[in-house]
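Hi support team,

I submitted a single chain yesterday and got back a structure, but I'm not sure I'm reading the token output correctly. Could someone confirm the output below corresponds to the sequence I sent? I've pasted both exactly as they appear in my results page.

Thanks,
R.
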Amino acid sequence: MRTFGLALLAAFLVTADSAAKDYYLTIGGGYAPSGNQVSLERNVMFFQRILGEPQEDEFRHDIFFADGQAGEADLQVLDRESVPKVNRLMAEFFGSRRNLGLQYRNHEIAEAKYGTSPENISRWFKEVGSEMQAGDRLYLYVTAHGNRSSDRKDPYNTTIATWDRTSIKMKELVKMLDQLESGVTVVTVMVQCHSGGFARFMFDQGDPENGVSSQSRIGFFATVHDRPAAGCTADINEADYVEYSSFFWAALAGVDRLGEPIDTPDYNEDSIVSFDEAHAYTLLTANTIDLPIKTSGEFLKVSSKFAGKDDDGELELLGKEEAYETVLELASPSDRAVLEGMSEQLELTGSDRLAEARKSVESSRKASQGRRGRPPETERTRLQREIRSDLLKRWPALANTLNPIATELLTERAEEFIDLIEGHPKFSRYRELTEKDELNAIEKRVKYERFLRTANNVILAENLRRMDAPEKLTQYEMLTAAESQSFGQ
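Hi R., thanks for writing in. Yes, this is the structure output for that exact sequence:
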């Protein structure tokens, strides 16, 4: 088993000297044109804007995207505004908006010299990776699709989906990283579905049984190993993008992907936004189905425990439902920001809010499992149905949009059709609800889960300190120290 020594802890904390170099590796795009949405392209471009152009070999950024420079129409784009308003309204009330305005084009990332084949990525590690020296830093950003592990006995060996329906497994990436000098620091941000499986790349051969790798590896992941992630869309409207890295990069840059300034999440007030603070900001701000994790949290899941039946009581370990005040006192500034912010968002109060959150999660799951058929009607869907019903009273033939009347309303009578819909007394309220960003039941449940996972990490960290495991405690402190760094540190 590989082990960390205190000397390596010092290496984690040393500020890079002038000889150290930063390498950025971006793996982006889908597995085929039908799975290569424009949001993946825009994610890469946002990251490029965050980094800026390197000055005098300041850093190196290599981008692998979809089919590389093949020149084919490899990108899926959905531009509803390119479709006439009358067609959009007809689809909204009498058909489906799905794929309305869908088209394909070649991606526009000129710097993407190569496609995302496993062979190309592996070659990069052999050729460019061999240039890296101890003290250098590798920042790996993955904005792609991903899949579950194909091995039920090894559920954390999830994948990055690469071009032409190929893939890179977590343990395959570990082998590539193993080719680098042990003194190279690796920082990853991954937003693909099931990305959390890659958190275990911190372990030797990707296996917790082997202990932590001798190489400094930390990462931040959009979701856990057994869940899909939010974010991939063919819609060109970047204002609607809510995937993990949109918030993570915005926190580090101080501006969102539209260039608007954000409130800087400098929770410990040291004038630097760390990776850990960017992660906390994302937990608080992103209203999605994602349950984001980081390496230190995954390490605690493996290495620590809660008070339970197998304890002799001598360690005085904490349980899962400690008083909120106890947890808050033990929390780091980032975790405290999440706990307090989530409490406000979820209207949690009092000392028993951990137990209250857990009950809410279980209640939501049971309600979800108990529902059959269509989801319950909301005010928005009710208003949509009522407007449609009134339109059918005016034009009964619209019950089938292949009737000639539909063609008339889409062409020479388009203005009449638009005026009747937009002039409906309930249309304004319907449109207001359509554009309102409300949490659905799953997103709200995930908010509770983020709150509980943060609290659990605080409790497990304290329990690790109380356990007789100095080596594991040292490893955990190394991980949190590295997560508390930022670009170039």
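A quick pointer for reading it: The radius of gyration is 25 Å. Let us know if anything else looks off.

Best,
Support desk
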